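Forum: Protein Structure Q&A
Topic: Joint prediction for protein chains with partners

I've read a bunch of threads here and the consensus seems to be that you should model interacting components together rather than docking separate models afterwards. I'd like to see that in practice. Below is the full input, 287 residues plus whatever partners are listed. Could one of the regulars post the assembled result?
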Amino acid sequence: MPELAEVAFFARQWNAGMDASVMRVTTHSSARVFRESPAKRIASTLKGQALTEILTAGKQAAFRFSTDIWLGIHLGMSGRLFTDGSRENLAPWAEGDKPPQPTHDRLVLHMSNGTALVFNDPRMFGLVRLYRGDTTPPWWAAIPPALSSPLFTLDVLKKVLDSHPGVLLKSLLLDQRYFPGIGNWMADEIMWRTRLSPHNRVRALGNKEVRLLYKTIREVCNDAMEVVSKSWYPAPDNWLFNHRWKRGGRCPRDGASLLYEQIGGRTACWCEKCQRQIKNYELKIKN
DNA sequence: CTATTTGTTTATCC
DNA sequence: AGGATAAACAAATA
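Posted by a regular:
Agreed with the consensus. Here's the joint model:
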């Protein structure tokens, strides 16, 4: 579930514990999410420390305690953050979906102000890790600048594209080394808004497409943050987003049936009618 | 029973 | 070397 804006939404839930300190920690200590940092060590380190800062970048969240303790959480495929008070009625599952089951709570921080901060992850592809230091952890500093920041320039994008000419564009968009926070739905949304078929390889893009891609990446990130990170969904109906989940969906632009295909190991949803395949370089030469 | 899933890493092959 | 593919991780859902 969680991509850029969903991660930001979930991380915000833990604001309820801001400035309070950790009284008690409960963990599902054998859980795979603790594969890098043992649950016991996390629990003993956090005890008595105050939550002082919440950060998100890409698909990752970091919680700073006191001054030099950093709790990093990656939500993986099914991870969620909430407080015990909102377990039943938080927006992501308020309408119909089952609330998170307590048996899937992997880490719970019982805070001095009475709130409990919960990390719940049924599938356990998520990751919890701990770091001590005066500055952000190495794995945090390694996350590239946000795609919405001034540091992500057209020139940066061009260099990334130049370094991977043979890759499917959609696959490249999923690469967290270059596009932090973009996941499967955002990548499909970007491809759809640029009217480029997911079968296009990077080298097929001309200058015009690269500029359009740049604008669209930023637009989708900004839209997602604007709509999702503060109040969750629904998304506007003129996004591909609303139409891509159930098979049989139709393109909001032209009403054509959406296609679902495995491309680059992931399910791509796209509209054959309005998303075009750019003629490849070899064909151009022959013509 | 089957196949599917909003993520990532690793192995393997071409 | 660069890139594709499958598998692995684990659990719910259709």
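Residues 154-286 of chain A form a domain with the Helicase, Ruva Protein; domain 3 fold (CATH 1.10.8.50).
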